[in-house]
């Protein structure tokens, strides 16, 4: 049952991720990307710490052993700090469709980190599912051309670091609550980003807030809080490879939002891309596992 819960929460995370990537492609244009990232992360950390106090999970911080502290520190510096800075610097240089496609490489990189650090196993279904997911997301690019530009390399580097951090966080989740891990990741990450801003001599960018940027920060803070809450709860209860596969569904969701905003009908190539991504995810996770996960969600919503 715990695995079904984790898979179900991963599907919800993918929905939030798709909306978040779409929103961030606009929000990052409103102010300096590193300052924008810091404000989001520090506000999310504050919200999660408040939730931790309400749930009394903050007591875990008082009894951390050396291994747990190191894992949380690495999670925050790598995933909550450096990866965010790289991603949003890259997002500023790329279209939403291209950045969404590149972000889906988190799944590919996660297969490697899950095998190395978590001893999860690769099989032919996972390999076939990964190929289908990549092919589907490539079709969703449409007429956009990929090249080894600075933006592409930045987003790919961020995706690789997030895959590493997810494996590290899952190790921490073996003995800690999702709220504790998420709070540490975002809090330590915010401090890391502030240090990067200072090293860049760009701390003054935090004072360049405008009503427009505040609005986007508020929207994306809500989405990011929901994302990390759902994501670390899913990682707590299901394999990283399965969760990362499901997260790739965020790409089609972002693309659908872009098409809806532009008022364009879906082309055959786009529809084929959606189908391949969905098929790849189901193939990787398992049809029965997915059905049980949706059943768990239905029962949860029905029970209030």
What proportion strand? Answer: under 5%
Order of helices and strands: HHHHHHHHHHHHHH
Number of domains: 1
Number of strands: 0
Catalogue the unreliable spans: none
Shape summary: globular
Query: What proportion of the residues is helical, as a percent range?
Result: over 70%
Radius of gyration: 19 Å
Main sheet summary: none
Distance between the termini: 19 Å
Q: What's the quaternary structure here?
A: single chain
Number of helices: 14
Task: Output the structural class.
Answer: mainly alpha
Round the mean pLDDT to the nearest integer and report it: 83
Please describe what this structure looks like:
The protein has 304 residues and is mostly helical. The chain has one domain. Helices cover 81% and strands 0% of the residues. It has 14 helices and no strands. The protein has helices at residues 2-27, 33-55, 59-62, 66-91, 96-103, 105-117, 124-140, 150-173, 178-199, 211-237, 240-247, 250-262, 268-285, 287-302. Helix 6 packs antiparallel against helix 11 (240-247). The model has no long low-confidence stretch (mean pLDDT 83).
């Amino acid at each position: 049952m715990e695995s079904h819960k984790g898979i179900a929460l991963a599907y919800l995370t993918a929905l939030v991720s798709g909306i978040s990537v779409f929103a961030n492609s606009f929000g990052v244009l409103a102010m300096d990307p590193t300052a924008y990232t810091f404000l989001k992360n520090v506000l999310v950390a504050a919200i999660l710490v408040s939730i931790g106090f309400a749930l009394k999970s903050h007591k875990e911080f008082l009894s951390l052993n050396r291994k747990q502290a190191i894992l949380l520190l690495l999670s925050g510096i790598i995933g909550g700090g450096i990866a965010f800075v790289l991603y949003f610097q890259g997002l500023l240089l790329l279209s939403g469709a291209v950045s969404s496609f590149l972000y889906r490489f988190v799944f590919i990189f996660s297969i490697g980190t899950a095998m190395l650090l978590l001893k999860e196993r690769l099989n032919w279904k996972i390999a076939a599912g990964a190929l289908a997911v990549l092919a589907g997301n490539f079709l969703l690019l449409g007429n956009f051309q990929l090249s080894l530009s600075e933006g592409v390399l930045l987003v790919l580097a961020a995706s690789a670091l997030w895959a590493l951090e997810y494996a590290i966080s899952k190790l921490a989740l073996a003995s800690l609550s999702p709220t504790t891990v998420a709070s540490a990741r975002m809090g330590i990450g915010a401090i890391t980003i502030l240090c990067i801003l200072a090293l860049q001599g760009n701390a003054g960018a935090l004072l360049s807030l405008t009503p427009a940027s505040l609005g986007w920060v508020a929207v994306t803070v809500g989405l990011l809080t929901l994302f990390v809450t759902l994501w670390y709860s899913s990682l707590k209860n299901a394999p990283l490879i399965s969760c990362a596969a499901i997260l790739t569904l965020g790409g089609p969701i972002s693309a659908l939002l872009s098409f809806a905003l532009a008022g364009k009908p879906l082309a055959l190539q786009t529809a084929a891309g959606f189908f391949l991504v969905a098929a790849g995810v189901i193939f990787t996770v398992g049809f029965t596992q997915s059905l049980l996960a949706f059943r768990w969600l239905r029962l949860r919503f029905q029970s209030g």
